[in-house]
Amino acid sequence: MIHKKISIWEDCGCAMKTDAVMAVYVPDNSPEIDMNRKNKAVLICPGGGYQGLCDREAEPVALAFAGAGICAFVLYYSVAPHRYPMQLMEVSRAMQVIRQNAEAWHVDQNDIAVIGFSAGGHLAAHLAVCWHDTMIAKRLSMPYGDNMPNRVILCYPVISASIEGICRVAFYNLFGDDAGDEDYAAVSAEKFVSADTPPAFIWHTSADAIVSVQHSLIFAQALGGRHVPFELHIYPEGGHGLSLCDLRTSGGRDGLVMPHAAPWFDSCVRWLRKCPAKSMQANAGRHDIGEIEAVLGNTIR
Fold this sequence. Notes:
The protein has one domain (2-296): Alpha/Beta hydrolase fold, catalytic domain (Rossmann fold). The chain is of the alpha/beta class. It contains nine helices and eight strands.
């Protein structure tokens, strides 16, 4: 296995620099298996309400995907007091780094998913719907499409600031004291689903008292309205932050061991192997800069 932790900004060529790092977990090729193998990959965004990062949704998840033969990368993105749009720039840059190193890391650069848990689910969904915002490319001196996820996986995600509940603190942590309704609307991912949004796998529990299942439902409804393929799993029991739902990520807490919800991971791996990825070629030539800015309303400031 290739395993290391790197700064995402090395050799970036842009002015933006943060403390964000990415951990690499890549099954290495072998003469006894296949020296030319190209694997699917996932970029993992742990949760933590934009005020911290949850270890239970980081390395254990990466190791599970690596065990399934899928290259895994964990992004340790910035949290409060660092504000929006820093996190969106970081996840965009991380996606670009994976593509730039696709050969060395045995990655199929046209088969990279972004996966997020809770507030990390918000970040993943935000990238999925706004990857083509020209302000990202301008700030990062990035060629169009380098940050495009080919799929998105959302695990009990925060999606919309329009839904009341405890999870609204995540949006407060993202913006601080100065945000208004327009700011919150600009990061409510369901509002920006389009034909450019990649296929989605979503799971949640209906008993989640921290992040309501309505977040997943409202995003799924938006995907359906735009004819974007998705698979949605709603489990009847289990609280927030289940991660892999077993002893690997329970931290000794019985309430985080949920065998009936644990199949989400195997279902997700099957979906990754079966569902066609969103290709860059499908978007080639579809928009010019003026059209993209008109669609997104310049949400990235």
